[in-house]
């Protein structure tokens, strides 16, 4: 069916209010875009952040009375700010369009992440079946990519891995499919636990994965620990994360901007012999080996 799109460019406070009124006026969906390419790097868990200049996009049936909808929005003070534009969208299969934008991605020599609707490029490789969605990490972002590349060369048979801030579970699942004996995923968000469970089940490794919220996390030391979160939590939880790595064990940290890498290295160098920092676009990975006890 054909659609009409109402694009409202305004400030972040007004964008949220406009979104609510768009839904009241029959929008099928409302999405937000950054109007000025201003990155948001470190939201706190559970925060919903918008950019200083935000575009709220309401999607409507082609028969919708857009003049009446705009008039409704402009009766409010927040609707009188900024500017708007009405666009006609061509009739197409939007679900298929979205699916076609995701393709299998290779990491290293033998690891692939494949959407479920795509043909697996190399059946003999290590293939992770993972669909894009609400779950925090599909391999497309540089921070996840850096971790997957590292795991592909560092996981050994019989390893136990801790995925600290597991999100979708992609790193834990990858480690298990690469040969790890056991993985433990920890995350503050119950939705992440659900997503990790579903992805582990889809990849037939759920029997080797344990998942915990922080208040229930076990005391243990693992052969390998990965933490793809953000620089702030990596600073604040440095001692906690480091304690999960056994002497001689391996650590990989990601979610770090290039401007933050030096500080993270300084913090973790007290416990680890660090490797050269790896970088992809503006993001870095810090990795190393836990120092042996004296």
Automatic annotation (TrEMBL):
GO CC, alphabetical: cytosol; ribosome
InterPro entries given in the database record: Ribosomal_L11_MeTrfase_PrmA (IPR050078), Ribosomal_PrmA_MeTrfase (IPR004498), SAM-dependent_MTases_sf (IPR029063)
Intracellular or extracellular location(s): Cytoplasm
Record-listed S-adenosyl-L-methionine binding positions: 144, 165, 187, 228
Reactions catalysed, as given in the entry: L-lysyl-[protein] + 3 S-adenosyl-L-methionine = N(6),N(6),N(6)-trimethyl-L-lysyl-[protein] + 3 S-adenosyl-L-homocysteine + 3 H(+)
SUPFAM superfamilies: S-adenosyl-L-methionine-dependent methyltransferases (SSF53335)
Keyword line: Cytoplasm, Methyltransferase, Ribonucleoprotein, Ribosomal protein, S-adenosyl-L-methionine, Transferase
GO MF term set: protein-lysine N-methyltransferase activity
CDD domains linked: AdoMet_MTases (cd02440)
Predominant subcellular localization, coarse grouping: cytoplasm
Record-listed E.C. numbers: 2.1.1.-
One GO biological process term: methylation
Enzyme class, UniProt record, top EC level: transferase
UniProt xrefs under PANTHER family: ELECTRON TRANSFER FLAVOPROTEIN BETA SUBUNIT LYSINE METHYLTRANSFERASE (PTHR43648:SF1)
Reported function: Methylates ribosomal protein L11.
HAMAP family membership: Methyltr_PrmA (MF_00735)
Family: Belongs to the methyltransferase superfamily. PrmA family.
Stored NCBIfam families: prmA (TIGR00406)
This protein's name: Ribosomal protein L11 methyltransferase
Taxonomic source organism: Catenovulum agarivorans DS-2
Lineage: Bacteria, Pseudomonadati, Pseudomonadota, Gammaproteobacteria, Alteromonadales
Gene: prmA
């Amino acid at each position: 069916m054909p659609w009409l799109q109402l694009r409202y460019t305004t400030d972040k406070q007004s964008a949220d209010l406009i979104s609510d009124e768009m839904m009241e006026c029959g929008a099928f969906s409302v999405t937000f875009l950054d109007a000025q390419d201003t990155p948001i790097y470190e939201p706190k868990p559970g925060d919903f952040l918008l950019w200083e200049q935000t575009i709220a996009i309401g999607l409507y049936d082609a028969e919708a009375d857009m003049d009446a909808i705009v008039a409704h929005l402009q009766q409010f003070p927040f609707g009188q700010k900024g500017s708007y534009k009405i666009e006609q969208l061509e009739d197409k299969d939007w679900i298929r369009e979205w699916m076609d934008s995701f393709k299998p991605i290779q990491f290293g020599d033998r690891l692939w992440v494949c959407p479920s609707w795509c043909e697996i490029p190399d059946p003999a490789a290590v293939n992770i079946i993972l669909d894009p969605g609400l779950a925090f990490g599909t391999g497309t972002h540089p921070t996840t990519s850096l971790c997957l590349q590292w795991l592909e060369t560092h996981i050994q048979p019989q390893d136990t891995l801790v995925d600290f801030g597991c999100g979708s579970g992609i790193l834990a699942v990858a480690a298990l499919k690469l040969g790890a004996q056991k993985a433990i995923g920890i995350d503050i968000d119950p939705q992440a636990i659900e997503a990790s469970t579903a992805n582990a089940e889809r990849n037939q490794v759920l029997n080797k994965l344990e998942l915990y919220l922080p208040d229930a996390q076990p005391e243990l030391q693992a052969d390998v620990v990965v933490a793809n979160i953000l620089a702030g939590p990596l600073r604040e939880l440095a001692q906690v994360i480091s304690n999960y790595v056994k002497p001689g064990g391996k650590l990989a940290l990601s979610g770090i901007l290039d401007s933050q890498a030096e500080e993270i290295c300084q913090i973790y160098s007290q416990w680890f012999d660090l490797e050269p920092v790896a970088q992809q676009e503006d993001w870095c990975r810090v990795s190393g080996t836990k120092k042996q006890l004296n």
